[in-house]
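Record type: monomer structure entry
Structure origin: computed from sequence
Chain ID: A
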Amino acid sequence: MRRSLMLLVGFALFLCTPHASATAWVPAWEQDVGPGYITTSPVADDEHVYVRTSGFWTGEERPVVKAFTHEGVHKWTRASPTTVQHDMSPLLLVDAGAGPCGQWPEMLLVGWANGDFTALHPSNGTLIWQVNTTVKAWGITGAALLDADHVVVPTRNGLMQLCLENGEIGFEVQLSDGWRNGVAKQGETYWVGSETGTLWGVHSNGTVISSVNLSGSLRHAPLVVDHRLLLHVQEDASSSLYVYTTTSDSLALLATLGGSPAVPLKVDQTFVFGDRQGLTSVRCEQACSVVDSLATLVSGEMALVSEDRVFAPVNTPEGGWFIAEVNESGGLAGSGVFSTPYDGYGTSAPAQTSSMLYIGNDAGVLMAYESKDLSPELPLDEGQNEGLALLGIIGLTFALGGSATMAKRGRMNNAWALLSFSALVIALLMLPDVSNAWNDVLTEAPPTSPDEEWDPSWSEDWLGTQVVVFELPEGTVSLGGFEGHTTVWSLTKDAASQSGINVETEDTSLGLYLISFNETRGGGWEYTINGERGTYAIDVAAVEPTLVLRWSLA
């Protein structure tokens, strides 16, 4: 009898034991760096991790760059008091060095949406030098490129080469308007794309030597493969993957993919592209070809973690980071989603050091994870859940059957002991889910009511409907009685059309953002829903059947 009981206990413990790889990322600390989003990857050196914010703000709040120790201690903050939306240029760490144009210390390079390009001391955030660039609604949003003793910066409408010692301008050339467009170098040529459908080639001396007409916007640095460039071009509802051969000035379509391309990633000899349709791997030998594809939804930046796993942000309300493994031949295999307590919309990639993983998204919280020899708490897919459920049923059946047999033989004490143990095991298995559910109930914010935003002068016919208020410089316009709209954009567009208000928007990789009403831009437009400030792009921000949507200048 005792042996049978021990076997049943061992079987139950086996069911409760997670079986996975021996390495996991365990939460170490977190820091709320908001308000605003973390839309680009943190960067880290031997002493600090650095993170920047972007997005909406009110009052005196502005996007910032912050530095923390690897233990999570805040060291310094630098804000841009005059910046505009959106600050999305990736941070760039530079080691100390010397070259023909001079000598420079360790630096953190930051491009700002107000057009400033700054070099900061990483130890304390103080300014080393600053250069101003062109602003047309916004300034710098793309990724700069380190090139020996210079840094090459994609400005709002061109390219600028700066000496690392003092920011002295090597050249500045006007091309066409860009957005989040990065720079690549091939030989003595810098390549940069634009929003207006052009790939530009600029010699290292500042001479424009090439321009290639594309079918849409190029929002990443071209990927250089010997004498070829790989280009993932964004179009209205899809994207095109091109191979451009610079020696013959020829452009060839490699594949038609999904919308909103992510920033591509090189993994050994494989190039990984992402979009709202999935991941696509490409390898280039005598010819470039698509190797594999994997259905998922990614956006923004991607990063390689632990040398063999691609982390790609999932820009949805549920969020998280999709994990895919790339094999030696370029094949793709999904291995789940890395989830955090703050999952949601996001476009930023993780940053990894030897033992730490730093990650953040639109929630504005920088999270640090430490590498441990434990099983990772990655979510199980549907098949794994069904398998464990089946094992659980089998285990419970054995336990109940064993208890019934013991009771039938008059061994009531043993039967009760086995039943009690089974109940304890089930309770322990349920505890995390019960705790999470209870936590959701306790922390779920109550929905805001439109009552406090209601104006008594409005028509009673508007009660229980969707109301829109435009606080324009020339006067406030209020409209109500709308029904059936599900997003801020749908409701705003309908109300603006009925009131004769002209609306200008900008389609970004983060979604649709409103630029102006009646050509008035000011410091940017913000919306509130029932008095709560909006945090999502207008084409994804959901609205209720009854609400007051208010637009005002920031």
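Annotation 1: The longest strand covers residues 24-32.
Annotation 2: Helices lie at 2-16, 382-408, 412-443, 488-499.
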